[in-house]
Amino acid sequence: MNFRNFKMVGYVVYGRGAFNQLDEILEPNRKGTAPMIFLVDHFFENKELVNRVPAKGKDKIIFVDVTYEPKTTYVDSLARQLKDEFGTVSGIIGIGGGSAMDLAKAVSLMMTNPGSSADYQGWDLVKQAGVYKVGIPTLSGTGAEVSRTTVLTGPTRKLGMNSDFTPFDQIVLDPELCANAPANQRFYTGMDCYIHCIESLTGTYLNEFSKSYGEKALDLCREVYVNKNGWDADSDDKLMMASYAGGMSIAYSQVGVAHAVSYGLSFLLGTKHGIGNCIVFDKLEEYYPEGVKEFKYMVEKNNIDIPKNICANLSEDDFNKMIDVSLGMKPLWENALGKNWESIITRGKLRALYEQL
Ligand code: NAD
Ligand code: ZN
To answer: Which domains does the chain have, with CATH numbers?
Structure first.
């Protein structure tokens, strides 16, 4: 048995208003006059938060376009632009949802590793530490703030740069930053966390480490989406910790069927992670009966729209592509269904599932 020896985030600060400490946190990590680069989710352009970014000297704020999930070409062009302009930088700070945080991790790594980020899509291919990197979530749920991966769409695949160099050196968890997120988006991203918990807690890879975090994260999701009526500051506090704990849970286990199937959707149709997981999970009664029942209750109670019929009008070829991508996620299927997963989830069965979405 070879136990995973996993690298965690360096420093964590949590609390309402913790963002105000950013200047002080960055200061000892500045290297001479090399700038800090703030990659800020484009949602915040012209918003009040930008005035609070502690940019000084040659520091630069770049508003990142997260209309589509991060691509290797985008990461490469950001890293190239920074190298051309500054040579070297003191650090990269990602402020936003999972997309902006993933961009920050990837750009940090590409400041020091040669070639294209596409060369590093896989496990432990990154050979050099990146520059100092900080993650500051403004949406809660993905767990990208704690994970050792950064999910990128490359020329041939959608796969993370999974490595010990990928986790942030620092994260700033300030629930105030999530206050203005639209209800639907907040739900889709929040459900990413809920689904991480269900997939981790019912999986064959489960151990006490994952279980401890997963159960707590699940309780927090339930407090927010099942027990409460309406949204308040306390909901943001709880969901931010749920995301963190959910991320810690899957760090030592794995996700499952919803993620494996939703990767196919995102590869073919560009469906975003959170909403894609919701579309799929809604149809997974067979695999997660209790979780799906509760999910449907939360959707109804919180008055959320889950898109339907997104696979209508797809060709034979399209279905085959999605099935290939999905079946390629072997550890996810093995976690969900056990060692004999290939005899349980056949192409035909998966096709029937995609047709329902
Ligand atoms: P996102 O980052 O893609 O953002 C979704 C939308 O919300 C965007 O339009 C964004 O501009 C907007 N937004 C962000 N913060 C907001 C705020 N406070 N108020 C209003 N709007 C706001 O969404 P996400 O669900 O957080 O992240 C999904 C991404 O995370 C995907 O790219 C996925 O691949 C990645 N991901 C990564 C990991 C990992 O471990 N690295 C895990 C899961 C998902
Ligand atoms: Zn997820």
So the answer is: 11-178 (3.40.50.1970), 183-356 (1.20.1090.10)
